[in-house]
Design goal:
Elements lengths: L1 H25 L5 H23 L7 H24 L4 H24 L4 H19 L6
Helix pairs in contact: 2-3, 2-5, 3-4, 4-5
Length: about 140
């Protein structure tokens, strides 16, 4: 039994070592242009939701915001491309791709229902706040 536990502990240690080494290769160095693009997208996205939240729910029809969705989508896709072109940037690329998927889901929700409720706006803002916290954090030292 002791040999089995020792073997298991050895495998767990090896696995943890590999994962920590992989983590170093997955995080890119700080890039000022990408950081500025991320901050620009963050500002535009939160302005979009702030404007929606200030309006009465019945006035939040999708058509009124369709061009905003398109413009923000273009900004997000540019950010995804910038992240994907950076070497050793797997984690941020995946996070940005997930961000793009959430944005498209929120756009489809608004289009399907023609309005967004206060609750839907609040949930989206909280979700995007967490995403931007990840995207804007400084790179982990290698």
């Amino acid at each position: 039994m002791l040999n089995r536990n020792a073997l298991l502990a050895g495998w767990i240690g090896l696995l943890l070592s590999i994962v920590s080494l992989m983590g170093c290769e997955m995080m890119a160095h700080f890039d000022a242009r990408t950081h500025q693009q991320t901050k620009r997208v963050e500002k535009v996205l939160f302005q979009h939701f702030d404007f929606l939240a200030m309006m009465p729910e019945q006035e939040r029809n999708f058509r009124r915001f369709e061009v905003d969705y398109l413009n923000i989508d273009v900004e997000i896709q540019q950010l995804v491309r910038m992240q994907s072109l950076r070497p050793s940037n797997l984690l941020m690329t995946q996070t940005t791709e997930q961000f793009a998927l959430h944005w498209q889901e929120d756009r489809r929700l608004h289009q399907r229902n023609n309005v967004l409720t206060d609750k839907e706006i609040s949930e989206a803002v909280e979700r995007y706040r967490k995403i931007f916290d990840l995207l804007l954090q400084p790179p982990v030292a290698e």
